[in-house]
Amino acid sequence: MDRWQSPQKTYSLETLGPVEFDCASRQMRRPWSDVTVRGQYTTRSYGDESFDRYAPSRFKPVADTGFERPLLDWACHLDLPQERLVNVARTASNDLIQVDVASIKRSGAMTSFWTRHDYPEIDVDPAYHAPYDSKRQHVQVNCSAEKYRILFGYDFTPDEAVTDAMPENTSADEPLDAADDYARAIKTIACGKPLNAETFSGIGGNTIRPKTPLSTAPVEAASAIPPEVLAEVQKLQAVLPVPNVARGAKLTMIGKGAKASNTNPPVVHLIQPKKDGRTHIHSIYRQNVTMDHEMAGLVELSSKLTIGAPGATSTFITTALTLDAPAWRPNTEIVFSSESSGTGAPLKFKTTCTIGEPLAANAIHPALAGRAWALKCNHSSQGASEGYYVEELGYFLTMRTVSKEFSVTDYSIQSLSVER
User: Fold this and answer.
1) Where is each Surface-adhesin protein E-like domain found (predicted)?
2) Rounded Cα gap, residues 248 and 279, in angstroms
3) What does the angle CA 409 – CA 414 – CA 418 come to, to the nearest 5 degrees?
């Protein structure tokens, strides 16, 4: 799990996805990673090559140091039987239903095994345009109850690359309906006479069929901020202090948790205030992980997450905003609710910030000029933050976060330079 601090919020980033191993060449690959931010699913990254749209991943050699080598050693020493696929049925749409007879396990009335659907043509998953020509599913059959359940499954390309998955334990029990080709086929295997895994041939025929490749031309996504959001932002910009803004700044921050060992790597923020009241922030969390924010005071208008290759980006746009900003003075509350769209369900936030007393900005760091305002903000989904709104940068400098996930984190300025 990765975690970072943005100008506005404390983010927790978690990635989850399968890993494939090539034991003979001691290589591994991650076909995709589902990315969640603050506990909400946001996007899918395919092999650090593309967001939201399928891209093939490559096997890479495993380094001798780090966690990958023990993981590869563990996986390659698993005592797994060699897959033996057998055709057991053909549907009216020319799908082949196959069973891996080497995977059959029986325990009382329950029988479990792997099945494979071989489709006549390559198709694409509409959510990610991920190609597949077959699907493997792990099925559990209860012969006494006349029911079965798909425990989990994966989509595959013709060259056996995994492109999508069905999460574990998301399906319900289904009846062993004789009118259903799949149910009828698995019932014969699970509840019929015992079979010889070495000699059973099913209906015969090849289990792998050639298919015509698909085009993989990319599709561009829209990224315009709605005019009604920009109109709502004017309420905040109308009350914000209007100083002589700096041309830019480079800020390096370090976060430290409650435990001495919980120190985060330095994060570099390149801050560029604009004459129209917006501020662009380019945040560098690691060499291959960056995020760009377009801010209007305290409100994030858009952000772009980049992981790995330059083309592997995911953009989030604020598509709805309501804001109450009566004035900018001590003890005044600024309240706004926003909704951002990327992929999956929209991300919804509500923030309440209380303005404190102004102070000389150089009291925070000698490189700063003008004034800064103390701020305390409560965020509906991820806790609270404290810091200063720095007038000449148009930037909320976060000095403490109280996260629902990670407790208290204090931030310090490692270095700061300002160009005027």
Assistant:
1) 95-191
2) 10
3) 120
- Using alpha carbons, select from 152, 127, 159, 213 the residue that is nearest to residue 18: 152
Task: Identify whether the C-beta of residue 411 lies closer than 8 Å to the C-beta of residue 386.
Answer: no
Inter-residue contact 409 to 259 (CB < 8 Å): no
**Tokens at residue 61, please?**
């050699």
Tokens representing residue 279 in the block: 């501020």
268's CB contacts (< 8 A; 6+ apart) are: 250, 251, 252, 283, 284
Q: Cβ-count burial of 54 within 10 angstroms (0-12 exposed, 13-18 middle, 19+ buried)?
A: buried
d(CA 281, CA 295): 8
Is residue 377 a contact partner of residue 7, using CB atoms and an 8 Å limit? Answer: no
Q: Is 270 exposed, middle or buried (0-12, 13-18, 19+ CB in 10 A)?
A: middle
Q: What are the angstrom distances between the C-alpha of 408 and each of 92, 265, 268, 354, 401?
A: 60, 16, 21, 19, 6
Q: Model-level pTM?
A: 0.54
Cβ atoms within 10 A of the Cβ of 161, count? 18
Q: pLDDT (tens digit, 9 = 90+) per residue, 132-190? A: 899 999 999 999 999 999 998 999 988 888 888 876 555 678 899 888 899 999 999 99
Query: Which domains, ranges and CATH numbers included, belong to the chain?
Result: 11-76 (no CATH), 85-191 (2.40.128.710), 225-419 (no CATH)
> Which pLDDT tens digit goes with each residue over 4-56?
444 445 455 567 788 899 999 999 988 888 777 655 556 777 766 666 667 78
DSSP state of 297: T
